[in-house]
């Protein structure tokens, strides 16, 4: 259909129908994190189509000549153009009787209006949003920074390599200051740091686009880029002021070798390289090309002029500062996700191998959705439990009697500082938690054994004081038994470390 006015009408209709579809998608109830993210991705795709069609409409309105010519043709008494177009339409549908009007727009719109999770019985379609995330990211809930942590740990000059939780704390510090501003300048000016910060920025940008499809991260990055350029030119970028001033005002001192096309920072290094095979070969090549050969005695050396052009070293440093600034902006936006990631890592550390395996199996095989959702909702409304006191539920799914609630003291709160200020309701639950994984993980974090001596101890200060008192009383065996290491000799006899070392000193092993 080549009618200019019809194209305008159809495009405007599609924009209006997409607007209604967008409202329908965003007004759906938020039943789960997966459904919310699926709706957001569909809404983002609808917005992209609206933007594309709005650009098409803008271009059509600029074509005044074509519109004027068609209006003149329709306003005359000659109806031959109208009948000519009618014949073309009839021939098209006679040749393609199954073709859809509007180029299949209704099918495209139906894809966005389908409810998430609705699938045919005989055909199960893979969730395209789930394929965007790795298993560690858990459908956009957490960050997967293990690769970046490995690269950061391999940087030279960072000192002690941090654990993964410590690395997350370093990234979380970007809420108050630029990320990795605590690193020495010798590390931040290297090529390895430039590669690392580029990869970190690339991952954070990709994760933000995948987990927050309705967030205009590109506009935020453009604002961060403008802010970086302003601060860089004004020499106000935190952590990079000295290098900007030094590179801009003092230039790059050193000795330049014209044959090797390389800058040497010291005279001794320059003199040592004059006898190398690489320098001799480069000098011969330069002489064969007709350029004046360098003086082997050092008279031919040339210092780099102090100009304002950007050297490779300055370009690399500026690139590192640029991606550091943009990564800081992304980390500030992902502050809540970063905190959830740290909590999830701590939780997984406290699980046993069997519990982790069971969790993976539950993720791989989620429970099937209810068959009769409407019927179940009606039954739930009919069997709605009256529980104004918010009593705990018993084995039958009903609130326990109030006298039993008072008997067990379930209304009394017990807070444990070792368990990160977790509150336990009732004395029974409080006594039981001392042998659970949460309390054991907190004791391991303090470097203390979770023995009966520390029962009823809930404050960190009291636990550390008790441990010191036990050591002073000569009861170190409590700690030694918890961290006892057994060693085996060549004959298969097993000893603890202390006994093994004593026998080895005596030559009995």
List the helices and strands and how they pair.
Layout: H1 4-26, H2 33-61, H3 64-75, H4 80-95, H5 105-113, H6 146-153, H7 164-172, H8 185-188, H9 191-211, H10 217-233, H11 241-250, E1 255-257, E2 262-264, H12 267-273, H13 277-288, E3 302-303, H14 312-333, H15 335-349, H16 353-364, H17 373-382, H18 402-407, E4 413-416, E5 422-425, H19 427-432, H20 437-445, H21 460-472, H22 477-482, E6 486-488, E7 494-496, H23 497-505
Antiparallel strand pairs: 1-2, 1-3, 4-5, 6-7
Helix pairs in contact: 1-2, 1-5, 7-15, 9-14, 10-14
Note the main attributes of this structure.
4% strand; two-stranded antiparallel sheet; mainly alpha; SF3a60/Prp9_C; 5 domains; 7 strands; RNA splicing factor PRP9; 23 helices; 509 residues; single chain; three-stranded antiparallel beta sheet
Tell me what the structure shows.
By secondary structure, the chain is mostly helical. It folds into five domains: 4-126, no CATH class; 146-248 and 313-347, no CATH class; 254-303; 411-475, no CATH class; 485-509, no CATH class. The chain contains 23 helices and seven strands. The chain has helices spanning 4-26, 33-61, 64-75, 80-95, 105-113, 146-153, 164-172, 185-188, 191-211, 217-233, 241-250, 267-273, 277-288, 312-333, 335-349, 353-364, 373-382, 402-407, 427-432, 437-445, 460-472, 477-482, 497-505; strands at residues 255-257, 262-264, 302-303, 413-416, 422-425, 486-488, 494-496. It comes from Coprinopsis marcescibilis. GO terms for molecular function: RNA binding; zinc ion binding. Keywords: Nucleus. Residues 280-313, 354-382 are annotated as: Disordered.
């Amino acid at each position: 259909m080549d009618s200019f006015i019809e194209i305008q009408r159809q495009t405007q209709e599609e924009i209006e129908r997409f607007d209604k579809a967008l409202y329908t998608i965003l007004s759906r109830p938020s039943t789960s994190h997966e459904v919310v993210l699926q709706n957001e991705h569909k809404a983002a795709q609808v917005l992209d189509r609206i933007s594309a069609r709005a650009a098409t409409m803008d271009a059509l309105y600029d074509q005044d000549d074509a519109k004027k010519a068609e209006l003149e043709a329709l306003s005359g008494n000659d109806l031959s153009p109208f009948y000519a177009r009618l014949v073309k339409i009839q021939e098209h549908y006679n040749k393609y009787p199954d073709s859809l009007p509007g180029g299949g727009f209704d099918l495209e719109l139906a894809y966005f209006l389908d409810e998430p999770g609705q699938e045919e019985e005989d055909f199960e379609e893979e969730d395209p949003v789930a394929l965007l995330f790795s298993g560690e990211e858990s459908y956009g809930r957490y960050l997967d920074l293990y690769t970046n942590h490995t690269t950061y740990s391999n940087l030279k000059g960072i000192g002690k390599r941090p654990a993964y939780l410590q690395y997350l704390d370093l990234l979380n510090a970007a809420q108050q200051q630029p990320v990795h501003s605590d690193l020495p300048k010798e590390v931040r000016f290297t090529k390895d740091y430039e590669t690392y910060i580029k990869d970190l920025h690339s991952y954070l940008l990709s994760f933000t686009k995948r987990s927050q499809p309705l967030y205009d991260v590109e506009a935020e990055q453009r604002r961060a880029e403008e802010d970086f350029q302003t601060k860089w030119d004004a020499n106000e970028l935190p952590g990079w002021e000295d290098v900007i001033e030094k590179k801009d005002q003092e230039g790059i001192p050193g000795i330049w070798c014209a044959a090797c096309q390389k800058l040497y920072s010291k005279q001794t290094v320059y003199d040592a390289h004059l006898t190398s095979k690489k320098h001799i070969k480069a000098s011969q090549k330069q002489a064969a090309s007709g350029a004046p050969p360098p003086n082997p005695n050092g008279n031919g050396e040339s210092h780099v002029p102090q100009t304002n052009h950007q050297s490779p070293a300055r370009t690399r440093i500026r690139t590192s500062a640029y991606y550091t600034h943009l990564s800081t902006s992304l980390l500030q936006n992902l502050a809540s996700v970063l905190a959830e990631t740290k909590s999830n890592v701590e939780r997984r550390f406290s699980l046993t191998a069997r519990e982790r395996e069971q969790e993976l199996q539950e993720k791989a095989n989620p429970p099937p959705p209810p068959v009769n959702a409407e019927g179940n909702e009606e039954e739930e409304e009919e069997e709605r439990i009256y529980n104004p006191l918010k009593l705990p539920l018993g084995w039958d799914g009903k609130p326990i009697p109030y006298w039993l609630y008072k008997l067990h003291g379930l209304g009394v709160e017990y807070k444990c500082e070792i368990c990160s200020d977790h509150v336990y309701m009732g004395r029974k639950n409080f006594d039981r938690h001392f042998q659970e994984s949460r309390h054991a993980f907190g004791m391991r974090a303090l470097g203390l054994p979770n023995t009966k001596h520390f029962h009823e101890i809930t404050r960190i200060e009291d636990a550390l004081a008790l441990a010191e008192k036990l050591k002073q009383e000569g009861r170190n065996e409590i700690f030694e038994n918890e961290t006892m290491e057994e060693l085996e000799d060549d004959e298969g006899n097993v000893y603890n470390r202390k006994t093994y070392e004593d026998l080895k000193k005596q030559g009995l092993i």
